[in-house]
Specification:
Number of strands: 10
Largest sheet: 6 strands, parallel
Distance between the termini: 24 Å
Radius of gyration: 32 Å
CATH superfamily of the largest domain: Glutamyl-tRNA reductase, N-terminal domain
CATH topology of the largest domain: Beta Polymerase, domain 2
Number of domains: 3
Number of helices: 22
Shape: elongated
Oligomer: single chain
Helix content: 40-55%
CATH architecture of the largest domain: 2-Layer Sandwich
Length: 591
């Protein structure tokens, strides 16, 4: 059997795909049950966090295992296999061990070095143990991963390389300033009472906020968290719990809101955020490059509910917006962005490209589009080249047909945002799928930080020297785990060999008793001990050496050789292995 992991994370998939593929607790349980029921897998564990979904399994066939695990992930996530496949990664045997150890140390986290992942790995192991889907391999693997993660944090300064998502998110809200100075005196609303929300509430309390309001669907959990905050020795904050129905009212009072729930839909819409800040922000000042509270500067296609006013095709030079698949209101006045250029159409579906091309052709036929070398339209720099734009659209259509999937829609090139008023409401969305409507970031007076913006902010973070040290720890631990696994693989064979030798000794002593019935107990015991010593000495060197050889890469064949040379019964070896697993299981528990 061999270790296989199939998954997707913030490193392989966009947030929009991770959102749709997210699994709640019940779905994770069903995925585990279906995985161990599948033919290639005998053990399974799911590691699901806000930015990764990974399925670990002990499989007997690599290709069949990859196909089965990928199919199961697609079925349970609700994302079609064809769409999900380009974002999946696969690790096998030592590479799978290396991946999990790296994850445990925080090397693969969105914020390098964060320690939250250790608790999530422990939860993953506990769930697999409760469902009896984790056998000897995954139990040993996950417990060793926990030990490796703890070693990395205790022996290196990896904690200095990054923080938890909560701390990093608050730093982003404070625009890199001192979080305590930024938070002092603010009123905080925390939506959710799980581990991440609890950490956020505690972090805000220690940072010096004046009040923490906890909202949760289960009021008891919210009250318990509020009580912990109030009675904590390291905080001096007023905390209270409210039901989820009170969130709209509490949002009007809050200065900072953190949300991390398991909801499948939006908890805060752009409209509810807009209503919460109504009257708290000065009216927008008219000026070039602004479009009221919904001034551009965010993702294309997310203007719904943001208050952005669609004004037809003003500035496009192509007349009305009828027939245009773009969200024109999100790109009006955006310098350097052409609604006819490659950045506008990259990532469109084939049908949208065809619709866009027809819209362009209609505009050209009507004489609205200037010839090459003419004056640029408002909101566009440089000159226009109709042939180049048409070629770009055609080439992208061919790409879509060739690749067989629709890439993520690209956002307009970064431009300098117009002056916005200082935020009166700070929003931190740590949920996956997201709790807060992404369109809220366009509202004047709102600053929104979510998983996607955290990923962008952390992408260019410098790697500390401690990270290299952690990588060395991971490499050493992977080698040690592989050696131990290979050595353990031969142990049942060695035990079966020694059992066979003991049976031979017992048989010969019984035969001796029959031939020398008058042998006294003292001499009989001496002869028995002598025969056993001879057998032990003959077997000692070969069994010690075979364990050493089996622990080396490529040493798996020594167990087969030993069974063949001594004609050991395969069922006897399997029985020893089952007995060891049963004994180990009794004493096993999360590290």
């Amino acid at each position: 059997m061999s270790l296989l992991v199939v998954g997707l994370s913030h490193r392989s998939a966009p947030v929009s795909v991770l959102e749709r593929a997210a699994l709640n607790a019940d779905e994770q349980v069903k995925l585990l049950q279906d995985t161990v029921a599948a033919e290639p897998a005998t053990e399974a564990a799911v590691l699901a966090t806000c930015n990764r979904i990974e399925l670990y399994a002990d499989v007997d066939k690599f290709h069949a295992g990859v196909a089965e695990l990928s199919t199961l992930l697609a079925q349970h996530s609700g994302v079609g296999l064809e769409e999900l496949t380009p974002y999946l990664y696969v690790h096998y045997e030592d590479r799978a061990v290396h991946h999990l150890f790296s994850v445990a140390c925080g090397l693969d986290s969105m914020v390098v070095g964060e320690g939250q992942i250790l608790g999530q790995i422990k939860d993953s192991l506990g769930r697999a143990q409760d469902l009896h889907s984790a056998g000897r391999l995954l139990n040993d693997l996950f417990q060793q991963a926990l030990r490796v993660g703890k070693r990395a944090h205790s022996e290196t300064g990896i904690d200095r390389a990054g923080q938890s998502l909560v701390t990093f998110g608050l730093e982003q809200l404070a625009r890199g300033g001192d979080v305590q100075q930024w938070a002092r005196g603010k009123k905080a609303l925390v939506i959710g009472a799980g581990s991440m929300s609890s950490l956020a509430a505690a972090t805000l309390a220690r940072a010096g906020v004046a009040e923490v309001v906890v909202a949760n669907r289960t009021l008891d959990r919210a009250e318990r968290l509020a009580r912990i905050l109030t009675e904590g020795d390291d905080t001096d904050v007023a905390a209270r719990a409210v039901p989820m129905e009170s969130v709209p009212a509490e949002l009007t009072r809050a200065d900072v809101t953190v949300s991390c729930t398991g909801a499948t839909g939006l908890v805060l819409t752009a409209e509810s955020v807009a209503g919460a800040i109504e009257g708290r922000t000065p009216p927008p000042s008219a000026g070039p490059g602004t479009d009221g509270p919904g001034a551009p500067g965010g993702e294309s296609g997310s203007a719904t509910g943001s208050g952005a006013q669609r004004d037809g095709a003003s500035g496009t030079g192509l007349g009305g917006e009828d027939g245009c698949p773009l969200e024109l209101s999100s790109v009006q006045g955006t310098a350097g962005f052409s609604v006819l250029g490659e950045a506008a159409v990259a990532g469109m579906a084939a049908a949208d490209l065809e619709q866009h091309a027809a819209w362009v052709d209609n505009g050209t036929a009507g004489g609205d589009r200037r010839a090459a070398g003419g004056t640029a339209r408002p909101g566009q720099t440089g000159t226009l080249d109709p042939a180049a734009d048409t070629d770009a659209i055609a080439a992208l259509a061919v790409t879509v047909a060739t690749v067989g999937r629709i890439p993520e829609r690209r956002r307009p090139e970064p431009v300098e945002e117009p002056q916005r008023p200082e935020p009166v409401l700070f929003l931190l969305d740590l949920a996956m799928p997201r709790d807060i409507d992404a369109a809220a970031h366009r509202l004047a007076g709102v600053r929104l930080v979510d998983i996607e913006s955290l990923a962008e902010a952390s992408a260019g973070a410098p790697m500390a020297a401690d990270v290299d040290q952690v990588r060395r720890i991971v490499s050493d631990e992977v080698a040690a785990f592989g050696a131990a696994l290979r050595a353990a693989h031969i142990t049942p064979t060695v035990v079966a060999l020694r059992t066979m030798a003991a049976d031979v000794v017992a048989g010969e002593i019984a035969r001796l008793d029959g031939r020398l019935p008058g042998l006294d107990d003292k001499h009989r015991a001496e002869i028995t001990q002598t025969v056993r010593r001879v057998v032990d000495k003959l077997l000692h060197a070969p069994t010690v050496r075979v364990k050493q050889l089996a622990a080396e890469p490529g040493g798996a064949g020594y167990a087969d050789a030993l069974r063949t040379l001594f004609d050991l019964d395969p069922e006897t070896v399997a029985a020893v292995s089952r007995a060891e697993d049963s004994t180990t299981e009794k004493d096993r528990g999360p590290a």
